[in-house]
Amino acid sequence: MKIRIEKLVTGGQGLGVLPDGRKVFVWNALPGELVDVELIREKRSFADGVAVNIIEASSDRVEPKEKTYLSTSPWQMLSEEAEEKHKLSILREQFEREHLDLTVLPQKIVTDLKTYEYRNKVEFGFIEKDDVLHLAVTGRRSHEKVSVEGSMLARPELNRAADEVLGLLRQLAIPLDYLSHLTLRCSQDGSTVGCLTVSAPRFQELPLPPSLQGIQVIFVNGFGRKHQTKVLQTLGDPVLTDTLLGVSLRYSATSFFQVNVPLYEQVLENIKKLVKSKEVVELYAGVGSIGLTVGAKNITLVDIDRFNTVYAKENLRRSAAKGEVVTSSSEKALDYIASDKSLVVDPPRAGLSPQVISRVMDVKPAQIIYLSCDPATLARDLAKLTRLYKIQSVTAYNFFPRTPHIETLVVLERV
Predict the structure, then answer these.
(1) Backbone angles phi, psi at 173, to 5 degrees
(2) Per the domain annotation, does 156 fall within a domain?
(3) Side-chain-facing half-sphere of 315: CA atoms under 13 Å
(4) pLDDT at 98
(5) pTM to 2 decimals?
(6) Phi and psi dihedrals of 79, rounded to 5?
(7) Is residue 76 part of a domain?
(8) Which of 404, 343, 414, 408 is nearest to 77 (CA)?
(9) Which of 321, 363, 362, 365 is nearest to 345 (CA)?
(10) At what angle do helices 375-385 and 354-363 cross, to 10 degrees?
(11) What is the CATH number of the domain that holds 263?
(12) Mean pLDDT confidence for 261-282
């Protein structure tokens, strides 16, 4: 059916209205365009779709570089100038929705102008076509996997390593149903490591591919609380090292660590200038990359993932700071939030939990530094926090060019 697109929304889709009045969220569609839409999911109050034919194109539309761009980087069809405009617009819309102060919003997004080959981490699934194993990602039109030949957003080292691992798996004739996914990561000097997640408790011994410094084969069994992992093989050295603001940090292919390191270092420089206390509590800390680089003397690093906290403890020992690392969910580590310490949070897309917000409102830390990857949950949390806090600054970073994702740094101070 033909749909006129009104605007781009937080998830990256174009918003239109179906003939029956329901909203429809459309991939591959830009504001002002008239498109033919194929519906891929229908609910009582809305639908999701993909534009399969552009009848009237926007002047902001450009030719995407990849055939599979909708699955890998869905804003490749949007000009770089328009990308910044729409990201700022989406951030503003979320602030408006929560009745937040709009005067604090930035007029520009911080970028290093590198729009491709910036990611230091990629993850691929697998698929068979004509009985040949291929790398794959999940398609937009369905949950079926789409064959890819790497990613143009990834650093070249990662695509080379992916090709080598794929060739090795083909050579060894590893069955598809033994394989889950491949995660690859590289440091700033190009050293590359990987993690091959498999669904078989026994797995054929692999040689170390030439382009990899190290790789682990990990068996994963179950989901949720029954989720179990077992390292089946470790080849070479699967640990990377990067230096951020003069601090040496170690991490693995699967650690929580930012994927656009040059821009991330700019974030850390900004936080270092803004943080007021020499005592810092960091929730969702990953390997401790914020707390350990911003000049704090005493640090508490909290993360739920024991693999993250193994590296966080090592990084803390190797740093000049003192403190402790806590392996816990943030909801079970509320006592570490204190009124005399700066609180740093870098939560997942779901944002802060009600328990964390409640604790903050009770204890009232003098300063909160909030790094967010989702403007909708950020605005929701700020609407609660600004009952007691004033927003001092908002900075937007284009960590993920050619995608809808926005990274936003907010500094709040107690009123």
Answers:
(1) 55, 45
(2) yes
(3) 34
(4) 97
(5) 0.93
(6) -60, 155
(7) no
(8) 404
(9) 365
(10) 30
(11) 3.40.50.150
(12) 95
Task: Collapse the DSSP code of 313 into the 3-class scheme (helix H, G, I; strand E, B; otherwise coil) and give the result.
Answer: helix
Same domain, 233 and 136: yes
**One domain, residues 202 and 339:** no
Q: What span, in angstroms and rounded, lies between the C-alpha atoms of 249 and 354?
A: 31
Query: pLDDT tens across 318-341, in order?
Result: 998 899 999 999 999 999 999 999
What string of DSSP letters covers 189-253? T--EEEEEEES-SS-PPPPPPTT-SEEEEEEEE-SGGG-EEEEEEEEE--EEEEEETTEEEEEET
CA angle at 72 for the pair 211 and 105, rounded to the nearest 5° = 110
Count of residues in the chain:
415
What is the per-residue pLDDT across 70-109, written as a single tens digit (0 to 9) for each?
988 999 999 999 999 999 999 999 999 999 999 999 999 9
**Burial of residue 173 (number of CB atoms within 10 Å: 0-12, 13-18, 19+):** exposed
Token couple for 356 = 């964390």
Contact 118, 86 (CB under 8 A): no
Q: Is the pLDDT of residue 248 over 80?
A: yes
Q: Are residues 350 and 387 in the same domain?
A: yes
Amino acid letter, residue 161: A
Please name the residues in contact with 312: beta carbons below 8 A apart, sequence gap of 6 or more: 285, 286, 287, 288, 301, 303, 325
Which residue in the block uniquely carries the two structure tokens 């891929």?
40
Going by C-alpha positions, the residue among 378, 349, 369 that lies closest to residue 91 is 378
Domain co-membership, 109 together with 128: no
Sheet strands (E) in 10-90:
14-17, 23-27, 34-42, 46-56
101 or 141: which leads in pLDDT? 101
Neighbours of 113 (CB within 10 A): 7
Cβ pair 49, 38 in contact under 8 A: yes
The DSSP string of 126-184 is: EEEETTEEEEEEE-SSSSSEEEES--TTB-HHHHHHHHHHHHHHHHTT--GGGEEEEEE
Residue 222, pLDDT score? 67
Residue 372 within any structural domain of the chain: yes
155-175 pLDDT, tens digit per residue, is 999 999 999 999 999 999 999
